[in-house]
Amino acid sequence: xxxxxxxxxxxxxxxxxxxxxxxxxxxxxxxxxxxxxxxxxxxxxxxxxxxxxxxxxxxxxxxxxxxxxxxxxxxxxxxxxxxxxxxxxxxxxxxxxxxxxxxxxxxxxxxxxxxxxxxxxxxxxxxxxxxxxxxxxxxxxxxxxxxxxxxxxxxxxxxxxxxxxxxxxxxxxxxxxxxxxxxxxxxx
Length: 188
Known about the structure:
Helix content is 40%, strand content 17%. It has helices at residues 3-16, 21-30, 52-63, 66-71, 75-78, 137-141, 146-151, 161-166, 168-180, and strands at residues 86-92, 101-108, 111-119, 131-135, 156-158. The longest helix is centred in the N-terminal third of the chain and has 14 residues, at 3-16. The radius of gyration is 18 Å and the shape is globular.
């Protein structure tokens, strides 16, 4: 089996919470005899919550969400200040020493696609079209609806508020991804 193909399947399985025990064992069985130090069967810990590696997984999860890629493919993704993409900066207010992470969302093939997930690349956001969101670790994992979360201060937000209000369904799907993408979460 091609290595890149297996990686994509493992990533999808991690996102969807599926088991790949069969294919993983098959890969281990295909290892050359005499291979030592193989970690094919060893569990891999998910990346740290709010790390650049986790943001990359969040970007992949975004691209696998029809709600986000299709429902945000209109005016939302096109409102980007002419730079060709929107920036979404996400951080955890409990994790004071962990810098925020960013996603870049662009219109590609008629869909709102995450083209980058990782460390901060754009340091100056324009809140007419870019977004900045932060919450505590607990609140990220127990967010509920975005409107309720913002009303009760569980989600802090800067960005185009009317645009966000018009896109509450996709916004709720994004908040669910933040909780659902596998991560090693610090003890609270």
